[in-house]
Structures are given as structure tokens and as C-alpha cells.
Predict the 3D structure of the following.
Amino acid sequence: MNIIALTLCAALSFSQNYKKKTAEQKARFYTDQMIQELQLDSATSLKVFELNLLVSQQFDSLYATNPEKDDARKGAIAIYKNRDAQLRKVLTTQQFLKFDDIQREKREKKRLEREQKATSEKAE
């Protein structure tokens, strides 16, 4: 009985301490990644942070409405297209091409993970 009580207390404590990241925290995280990957200078870093903050806020607004899966996908595509158009104005051509390559690699990795998960679920 004591073990169950301790487990419940720990779970409640964890859920109270867990907080969703703010738009600013997400923007800082993505900007820091981009600074490392693309060797951004301080002026460009500030512009990228502002853009990432806007994107994070747009995603928060999109998902706050609990959209259908297809609507969420369409909304995300629109947000990403706008982000990429803005990044083209902020980054050098080399930086944007490197950013695009990194994003493509991440999408491919996620696709492979989904396929592997689907394959393993079918085998069970």
C-alpha cells in the first residue's frame, strides 16, 4: 500500500512540475541549434530568433484549436513555407541551402522511423 501511495505522490509531483515549453523557450532552442549548425553572426541570430518566435507562436495557435489531422498538416505546411521564405531573406544562400539539407535529413529520418514502427506493429 505504501508503494502505491509513493508512486501516486511521485506521479502527481511530476505532473505538477511538468510545464509545456513557452514559445520563447522553443524559439531559443531552435535558434541555438541554427547558430551552431549554420555559424550565424549575432545580427542574423537575432533575426532568426524573432522569426522562430513567430513560428512557435503560430504553431501554438494552430494546435490550441485541436485541428483535424489534415487541417493541422495544411496549417503546418503554410507556416513552414512562410518561415522558409523569410529565412531566404535573412540567411546567406549557403546558410539557407545547408539549413534546407538539414531539414530534409530530419524529415527522412522521421519517415524511416514511422515506417519501422509500422512494420514492427504489423509483425506483432
In short: Residues 21-123 form one domain. The helical segments are 2-17, 23-38, 42-64, 69-90, 93-123. The chain has one domain: 21-123.
